[in-house]
Amino acid sequence: MGRRHAHGCQGYVLGEGDPSAPHKYPDELRERAIREVRTTGRPIAHVTKDLGIHKEALRGWVRQAEADRGERGDRLTTAELDELEQLR
């Protein structure tokens, strides 16, 4: 079985649970992490270490937040992804 991190999400320790299962982080933690990167300019690796989340998860969240603000042209916005999902 997995271990709970300080922020409340379920994590996995080698030999426990299914390490290939995706982590579901609380929305509040996601928003806090994105805000921390954007407002402080701290490196993603430092923020993830402090908050106990995977750096690639935060990297993706930051990229998506940038797309949603119109700061990136290489990704669909969340609204566009939702619309695409509805069409399928």
UniProtKB/TrEMBL annotation:
Residues 66-77 have a biased composition (Basic and acidic residues). Residues 1-25, 66-88 are annotated as: Disordered. It comes from the Bacteria. SUPFAM superfamilies: Homeodomain-like. InterPro entries: Homeodomain-like_sf, Transposase_8, WH-like_DNA-bd_sf. This is Transposase. The lineage of its organism: Bacteria, Bacillati, Actinomycetota, Actinomycetes, Kitasatosporales.
